[in-house]
């Protein structure tokens, strides 16, 4: 029977075509799906079918997905870190130039000019002094969060001649290899704010990052600084930013999240959530999420899940694969192995990984695994989901 994929948003056909037509049925009206693909659709408060084995987000942020609930059901939630990094990086760099050269306000001024060409030219010359900006070389950019986007922003800012401070206490080895050695480490957020002329935030929204840019940290910045936020609106305390702009301490705020308080402020440039809005980024995200979800459904492998550990095991030929999601408690692998032994099943290969409260086990077993064995494994206290692939 073909696997059923429900799409809750427009997902690029370049990604969906990676589901083989004979083995998958894909669409927006699929009932009882095996997996869900989503971009911005809100899943909180939505009934998610019992048979759903995976949710794939064609993007990075997963605030629209009930991740904790899915963890308790043994359902991995996938995202696509890095697939839209170049698109966001380019917009951040554009934001830097918009802020430094007062381009938004200058453009509005030029569009407001009236009269014949001579009058417009005279008014433009008389008014341009209001929009004197500054150049980027020699200025310091602080980058908060050195994931896929933050690393690209930091490296590109260096290429523009800027000094760059980076802060990320959870910097991975993979991203550290990609980061230029010329990026200086900020000792703390307070240290970074005190030394930067502009700050760009690239962190997920959670309890630790909500209002990360706040009144106390803004007070540490050099006069005339800029804040760039293409991550999540609530990472910035907007009231504190507006107060700093009105007091003349902050030069500009550039963000991707318009609202009534921000959209008409003369020192704010707010865009309509354009960070990943390029054809290339949408294709990259779709291809990446489809490949991840397909590998999980077909082989049980997990790559880029936000709630379960990366678990990739090459298949042993002529074996049957078992995938088990469980709570991260002692003796789970032992109990699963005991069930297999009781049925006379030999384990050819096994991989167990954990992440926080969740764990995941892949087993390649000699012989056929039957429904009775699967039922026994599912009945083990702590097993959240189990399936034979």
Please describe the structure with a list of short key phrases separated by commas or semicolons.
single chain, 389 residues, alpha/beta, Rossmann fold, Alpha-Beta Plaits, 3 domains, seven-stranded parallel β-sheet, five-stranded parallel β-sheet, 13 helices, 16 strands
What does this structure look like?
The protein has about 400 residues and is α/β, with parallel strands linked by helices. It folds into three domains: about 1-85 and about 280-310, 3-Layer(aba) Sandwich (Rossmann fold); about 85-270, NAD(P)-binding Rossmann-like Domain (Rossmann fold); about 310-389, 2-Layer Sandwich (Alpha-Beta Plaits). The chain is about 30% helix and about 20% strand. The strands form three sheets. Strands 8-7-6-9-10-11-12 form a seven-stranded parallel sheet, sandwiched between helices. Strand 7, helix 7 (about 175-180) and strand 8 form a beta-alpha-beta unit.
State the gist of this model.
The protein has helices at 13-16, 67-73, 85-100, 103-112, 117-127, 148-159, 173-178, 189-195, 215-218, 238-246, 279-299, 332-342, 371-378; strands at residues 3-7, 24-27, 35-38, 54-57, 77-78, 140-144, 163-167, 184-185, 198-201, 225-229, 250-255, 268-270, 320-327, 347-355, 358-365, 383-388.
């Amino acid at each position: 029977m073909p696997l059923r994929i429900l799409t809750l948003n427009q997902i690029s056909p370049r990604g969906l075509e990676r589901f083989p037509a004979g083995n998958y049925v894909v669409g927006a009206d699929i009932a009882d799906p095996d997996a869900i693909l989503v971009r911005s659709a809100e899943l909180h408060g939505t009934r998610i079918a019992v048979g759903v084995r995976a949710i794939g987000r064609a993007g990075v942020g997963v605030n629209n997905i009930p991740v904790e609930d899915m963890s308790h059901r043994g359902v991995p939630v996938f995202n696509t870190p890095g697939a839209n990094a170049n698109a966001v990086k380019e917009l951040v760099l554009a934001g830097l130039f918009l802020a430094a050269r007062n381009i938004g306000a200058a453009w509005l001024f030029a569009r407001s000019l009236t009269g014949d060409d001579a009058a417009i030219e005279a008014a433009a010359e008389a008014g341009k002094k209001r929009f004197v900006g500054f150049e980027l070389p020699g200025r310091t950019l602080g980058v908060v969060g050195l994931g896929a986007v933050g690393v690209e922003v930091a490296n590109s800012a260096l290429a523009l001649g800027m000094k760059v401070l980076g802060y990320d206490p959870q910097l991975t080895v993979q991203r550290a290899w990609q980061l230029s050695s010329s990026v200086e480490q900020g000792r703390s957020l307070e240290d970074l704010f005190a030394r930067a002329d502009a700050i760009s935030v690239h962190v997920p929204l959670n309890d630790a990052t909500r209002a990360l840019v706040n009144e106390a940290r803004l007070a540490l910045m050099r006069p005339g600084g800029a804040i760039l936020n293409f991550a999540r609106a609530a990472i910035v305390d907007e009231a504190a930013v507006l107060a700093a702009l009105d007091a003349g301490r902050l030069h500009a705020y550039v963000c991707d999240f318009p609202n009534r308080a921000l959209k008409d402020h003369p020192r704010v440039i707010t865009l309509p959530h354009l960070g990943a809005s390029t054809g290339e980024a949408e294709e990259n995200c779709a291809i990446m999420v489809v490949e991840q979800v397909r590998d999980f459904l077909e082989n049980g492998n997990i790559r880029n899940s936000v709630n379960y550990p990366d678990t990739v095991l090459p298949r042993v030929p002529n074996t049957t694969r078992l995938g088990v999601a469980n709570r991260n408690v002692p003796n789970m692998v032992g109990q699963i192995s005991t069930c297999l032994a009781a049925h006379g099943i030999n384990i050819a290969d096994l991989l167990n990984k954990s992440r926080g409260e969740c764990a995941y086990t892949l087993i390649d077993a000699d012989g056929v695994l039957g429904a009775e064995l699967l039922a026994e494994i599912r009945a083990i206290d702590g097993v959240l989901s189990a399936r034979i692939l």
